Amino acid sequence: MVAPRRYRPLAVVLVCLGLLLLSGCGGGGGGGGVSVAATPDWARGMATVRADALPAQARETLRLIDDGGPFPYEKDGSAFGNFEGELPKQPRGHYREYTVRTPGESDRGARRLVTGRDGEIYYTDDHYQTFKAVLR
Questions:
Q1: Which has the closest alpha carbon to 116: 135, 88, 136?
Q2: Would you please indicate which residues are annotated as catalytic (active-site) residues?
Q3: How many Cβ atoms are within 10 Å of 59's Cβ, its own excluded?
Q4: For every one of its 136 residues, what pLDDT tens digit does the chain have, with 9 covering 90 and above?
Q5: Of 37, 48, 39, 42, nearest to 133 (Cα)?
Q6: Is the distance from CB of 80 to CB of 92 less than 8 angstroms?
Q7: Which pTM does this prediction carry?
Q8: What whole-number distance in Å separates Cα of residue 136 and Cα of residue 124?
Q9: How far apart are CA 30 and CA 40, in angstroms?
């Protein structure tokens, strides 16, 4: 059955919208729109923070991690035990921790980045009490 002439524009719009939704082009891709990265499986169910929204000192620590160092603190790059159980359970040695400088602190402070073997990155600013998954 052919739609009456007055409903054809509406039918065309509905078909186009349906095709757009099926193709997954609902607003995150090109064309000048803002692209939002999908949340990776390891970060699902956690609070997240975009890397570019981290404090400047954390972004600098990320750069050092990407560059392989050198790191300002002796313990940077050491195994993180996850004794608090706030991160997903993994075998010992899966996680590594790095100090994020805290302005005004005379010691290492409370801020850390923790990385995982599979590319995970977590940020804490309260010495392992809570973590946010860092999205890049």
A1: 88
A2: 97, 127
A3: 15
A4: 555 556 555 555 455 444 444 444 444 444 444 445 589 999 999 999 999 999 999 999 999 999 999 999 999 999 999 999 999 999 999 999 999 999 998 899 999 999 999 999 999 999 999 999 999 9
A5: 48
A6: no
A7: 0.72
A8: 16
A9: 20
